[in-house]
């Protein structure tokens, strides 16, 4: 006998969420489903509505349109206290007059010994045992955010909400904490939604990224999908770097760029005879050690190089491709092998499978 598959109820299901602030529409018809144990990042530029969405999930912002279900329970109109979550804000938001132990224990109920035990467990969990008698001002920013995390997790909520928790910290602490938060989240298997405007943070931490722009969701996908198959020009530009090439389609998957004919990735369906805009990531363009006149290759002139730690970012002008200035990424080893100076010519190649377009507005 055929059985219906048992579909797990999502930990959180948002449907048709919209939000107006007076005449201003901050969110438009948001649908999002988050599974148990998932780490989801809401990513987008300032003002795109990500914090508003997180605050609506927390019940800190009224939801007048749409529905919010937590494990199937309708919490659309529930007060924050009636919902089951812990939250960490950007600024540490610890009570300055309470020591670390009392800060973490703040939301805990029950017997004193149980609370003590739970706080000890949490201090161990965040790697700060022994600091319980200190006051927030005596801790570094990174330590304070770890305490805020312990406080949010104290009651073992089924949902952890993080509102730009790392953005006030310096770069080194931020990178370290990224890793720690992710490891802790996986260990506890706590469903987590984090707001960030930092693409690296989203790419390194999230199981799925929700890219938002002007109150709408542009794309939902794994970090690889978002980076490798962006669904719109906005996503392609916001996550990672892009070269944009103005060409004319001479076939559904071929274009004329300057004096050259180039093939694009196989899944394209370009508007034949019309102008179209193509994109390629800087790291997808190849630098060749020797020149051979082949299709998809041309000689470019190195205009400028910039060392960015482990890589070089190059600017290369290609006359044969209509004078387009390409941004190309090269490793130290490549640069050492190529032995090229600014102003010199270098063979470059565009692999056909890497050239894509959003012309027609479709995700290709
Ligand atoms: N209480 C409010 N009243 C009026 N407008 C608001 C209110 N809260 C947010 N907004 C507006 O809604 C838009 C979305 O704000 P939101 O804080 O959600 O953006 P964000 O993507 O989190 O950006 P940021 O990272 O800058 O906080 C902004 O234009 C903001 O000015």
Key words describing this protein structure:
nucleotide-binding, 364 residues, Rossmann fold, 9 helices, ATP-binding, single chain, transport, 2 domains, alpha+beta, OB fold (Dihydrolipoamide Acetyltransferase, E2P), binds adenosine-5'-triphosphate
Please, could you describe this protein's structure?
With 364 residues, the protein is of the alpha+beta class. The chain has two domains: 12-237, P-loop containing nucleotide triphosphate hydrolases (Rossmann fold, 3-Layer(aba) Sandwich), CATH 3.40.50.300; 241-357, RNA polymerase II/Efflux pump adaptor protein, barrel-sandwich hybrid domain (OB fold (Dihydrolipoamide Acetyltransferase, E2P), Beta Barrel), CATH 2.40.50.100. 24% of the residues lie in helices and 33% in strands. The chain is built from nine helices and 20 strands. It has helices spanning 50-58, 100-105, 112-125, 141-153, 171-188, 199-205, 223-228, 233-238, 332-338, and strands at 12-21, 24-34, 39-43, 65-70, 73-74, 85-88, 159-163, 191-196, 208-213, 216-221, 243-251, 254-257, 260-263, 275-280, 286-287, 297-308, 311-318, 324-331, 345-349, 356-357. It has a six-stranded mixed sheet with strand order 6-7-8-3-9-10, with helices on both faces. Helix 3 (112-125) crosses helix 4. The chain is elongated and about 80 Å long. The structure holds adenosine-5'-triphosphate. Adenosine-5'-triphosphate binds next to strand 2 and helix 1.
């Amino acid at each position: 006998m055929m059985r219906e598959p048992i579909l797990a109820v999502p930990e959180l299901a948002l449907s048709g969420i919209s939000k107006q602030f007076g005449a201003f529409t901050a969110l438009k018809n948001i649908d999002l489903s988050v599974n148990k144990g998932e780490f989801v990042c809401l990513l987008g530029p300032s003002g795109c509505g990500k914090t508003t969405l997180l605050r609506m999930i927390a019940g800190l912002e009224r939801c007048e349109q749409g529905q919010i279900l937590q494990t199937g329970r309708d919490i659309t109109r529930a007060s924050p206290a009636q919902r089951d979550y812990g939250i960490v804000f950007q600024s540490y938001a610890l009570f300055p007059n309470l020591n670390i132990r009392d800060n973490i224990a703040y939301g805990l109920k029950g017997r004193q010994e149980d609370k003590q035990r739970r706080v000890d467990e949490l201090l161990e969990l965040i790697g700060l045992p022994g600091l319980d008698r200190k006051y927030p001002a005596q801790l570094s920013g990174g330590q304070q955010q770890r305490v805020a995390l312990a406080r949010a997790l104290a009651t073992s909520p089924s949902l952890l909400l993080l509102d730009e928790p790392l953005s006030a910290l310096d770069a080194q602490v931020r990178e370290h904490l990224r890793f720690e938060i992710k490891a802790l989240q996986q260990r506890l298997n706590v469903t987590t939604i984090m707001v960030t405007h930092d693409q690296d943070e989203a790419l390194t931490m999230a199981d799925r990224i929700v890219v938002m722009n002007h109150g709408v969701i542009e794309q939902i996908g794994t970090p690889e999908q978002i980076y490798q198959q962006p669904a719109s020009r906005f996503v392609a530009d916001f996550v990672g770097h892009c070269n944009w090439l103005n060409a004319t389609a001479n076939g559904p998957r071929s274009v004329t760029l300057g004096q050259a004919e180039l093939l694009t990735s196989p899944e394209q369906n370009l508007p034949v005879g019309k102008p179209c805009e193509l994109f390629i990531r800087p790291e997808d363009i190849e630098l060749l050690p020797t020149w051979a006149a082949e299709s998809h290759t041309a000689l470019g002139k190195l205009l400028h190089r910039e060392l960015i730690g482990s890589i070089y970012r190059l600017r290369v002008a290609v006359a044969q491709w209509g004078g387009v200035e390409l941004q190309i990424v090269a490793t130290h080893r490549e640069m050492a092998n190529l032995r090229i100076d600014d102003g010199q010519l270098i063979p470059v190649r565009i692999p056909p499978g890497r050239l894509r377009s959003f012309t027609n507005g479709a995700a290709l």
